[in-house]
Amino acid sequence: MATPTWPWVPHPEAAVSRTILFGWVLVQLAGASGTTGVVVAYNLTWKSTNFKTILEWEPKPINHVYTVQISHRLGNWKSKCFSTTETECDLTDEIVKDVKQTYLARVLSKLANATSSAAEPVFTNSPEFTPYLETNLGQPTIKSFEQVGTKLNVTVQDARTLVRKNGTFLSLRDVFGKDLTYILYYWKASSTGKKTAKTNTNEFLVDVDKGENYCFSVQAVIPSRNANQKSPESPIKCTTHERGVFRDMFFIIGAVVFLVIIFIIVLSLSLYKCKKTRARRSRKETSPLNVA
Fold it and tell me: How far apart are the C-alpha atoms of 113 and 128, rounded to whole Å?
């Protein structure tokens, strides 16, 4: 295939869109009257989360098939999902090669029984797509949390992506670095008033009231983006002091038992000494006096 020029969509875009739509309507009308024809794909949409990227389009084919092609700036077209009757194509393995590139895809339509010598297939271009700027951020996960006294420590687990480096799958933090921020929303379990904290790492350490239970969730954010800045919030987690109460009770009971054991030992030793002392006195009193 030839190297695509940039931009790929011919200049007046509005006129081309109207022409494609009008042509599609005519083809549908012709099909209804018994004439077969190729239906042009429309409504091409990128669906991407954590760089898992799928191109979707309409309509479902009747007597034709689709082939998808993808390229980046100054690159060549590469064909994917050959002669498919599906209306989606997974392009993840192409876009993860360089997530900062801008990509364009196109969906080619041709008759299902067309020969290789048939005319060039008609196609529709997708919108441009830059994964680093546009992939949606998936819901983060809370790896661990602990409340000790007046401090609440929360650790966030980075999601794994399909982006590779030296054969290893990278995490969101590996890909975005300091561009990735996490927001912690936390509040007293007995209240609805929320507080927030931000970090460029994966850990939070915030001040809380001692003895109070807290609930919290986290959200991934890329502030430098113009759109798709925030992920969904993580499931809510809550602290509980029941374990701490049981632990304190265990130590108190243990301490009491230890003191009782010490008391019994000391008391036993004292009684034993007293008994020996009384026994010696008794022997002295009952022994005969020496006669001169």
Answer: 31
